[in-house]
Structure formats: C-alpha cells, structure tokens
Design goal:
TIM Barrel
Amino acid sequence: MSEIIENSSKNHDGLVDLFSRTISYLRLSLTDRCNLKCMYCVTEDERNGCLTKLNQDELLTYEELLRVVRVAVDMGISKLRLTGGEPLVRKNVMHFIEQLGTIKNLHDIRITTNAVLLEQYADQLVAAGVNKINISLDTLKPERFAQITGVDCFEKVWRGIEKARTAGFSPVKLNMVVMRGINDDELVDFARMSRDTSLQVRYIEFMPVGVSSRWDKNTYMSSDEIKERIAVLGELIPDVGGRADGPASVFRLGEEAKGKLGFISPISHHFCDKCNRLRLTSEGMLRSCLLHDDETDLRSVLRQGCSDEEIQQTLLTAIRNKPKGHQMEERLKETGSDCHGRMSRIGG
C-alpha cells in the first residue's frame, strides 16, 4: 500500500492497484430512490409498495460528496459518472451538478438515467458540464415498458431521449439489459436504430446482482448469442475506439451505419483485467468491484471530522482491496447466486 500512496498522492501519476490497473473512474450513486420499479431491481412485493428506502441522513450530503470528489480528482480520478437509483430524482440535484462542474481538473462528467425526467433537465445538464449520457431502455414497446418498469411512461421517456439527442450530449447511449423470454425478440429492432441514427446501442448481459435480482440461467443470454441474432442485419464491423468505450466491445452495423453497437459481457467475456473504476454507493460505502460484496465505509470516516488525508487513505484502502477478478461464474456454480447488495444503492 505504501507504493500506491507514494505514486498517487506524491507524484500524481495516478492511482494504481495491486494488479497494475490504473483507477481513474469514480461512479457516484446519488440516491437509492427511483421513479421506476424495474423487474430486475425489485421484487413483486417491493413493486406493490414494500420497498425500503434509505433515510435522508443515511445518504451522503452534497457537501460530503463534493469533498470526496475533490480529493479523488486530486489523487488522479479523471472521470465521474452520476448514477442511482435515478440520480435526477434527488432534490436540488442540478445545483450539486453545477458545483461539480467547477472542480479543477474534472473534465469528464457523465450520467446514467432512465430518462423519465430528461426532457426537463437535458439542457441544464449540458450547461453544467455533463458531456455524455447513458439511458436505460430495455424495450421499444410501450406496453412491455410498463411491464418491465412497473410504470406506464414510455412516451415520456422517448421524449427525453429525443431531447438528449438535440441538447448536445455526445454520444447518447441506450443501455438494454437483455433477458431471454422477456425482451430478446427486440434485439434486431435496437440494432436497426444504431444503423439508422447516431445512437449507440449497448447490449448488457443480465447480471445476478442484488437481493432482488430475478436472474437465472434461463433468462441469461450471452453477448455471442446476441451477435448471432442481429447478424441478420449485416456484418458487424469492429469500431476502432478508445478507452472512452469502457468495458464495451464496439461495432458498426455496416460501413454506412450512423451509430454504434456495444456489447458489455461481464459473464461471458469479463473485463476485470482492464477495470479502472471505483464506486461510492448512495449510503457512503466504497465498492471496488460491482460483483463483490466487500465495501469500505467512507461515510463513517467523513462524519468523524476527518482530514483530507484520511479520505485519501480510505480511498487507497478500497483500491488496495480491489480483487483481481469477480470469479462470478465459479460462485454461480457453487451457490447459484452472487453479490447481495441492492443495485439501486450500489449504482450499477
């Protein structure tokens, strides 16, 4: 750990973990609350009104979050993503995001949203410095949207997506969690959008994450099978992108495609050796791997009157504890389940 401290806090060469991965990306879950009740996030009982939410004092305050981000950026974090729950439902969120935009050396602020409130906030987000957006959308059928999310608001979400396309985000990515027997019959329809528009469609393998997950081997579909399904539209041409694409393998559906297709394959082709991220959950826990339950308590440190150096040490502890890989396939074979945190608090 002394070597990590030396390299990151003294030389500003970046944060490097014990497996020589540079950690440059922090994901902040601003809230566990959401205006949707997606079937892979909540149980039927929770959909019917029994969903337990964090109390306000269990969430990190905006002041605490800003302090952590400033320290993290000074240590080498260069990319920030705002998640939830649904980040835009938190009160006064735009004022917080505007303050993030003033932090020196933080030039890459992104957001993941379900787009329910995006028509209202898109212009403000761009003005505040949010330059890239991921929108969760698992179906193009209004009736199925209501079944998956528990809320009948597809048209409002689609207006939000259209607003994002004109507001100045580049790129606009649509995240589709692929579930066999639920929405896999729409794979070609999503792919066609990437050919005909500038949207980047990202197919995400269904992951067994959270106490409410409905994952099972019959619902899961690998990226390889997804590619086979959409091959009816034409050749998938690898796109020569950069690290900005993160864990996605990116393609174009033919030379004339206006947008791109991304495949995120945490189960079939995991990308642990290139993982550059650290997560701060909505209740103030640092999580170095989405698919491991190990967490480092930063909220307690913040509320004990800590110094910036103690925040640094806590971040470094989380990075030191980052596992080499998630070993999810092995654990699924042994127990039939995986990590047990709540996705809405972890932040995906």
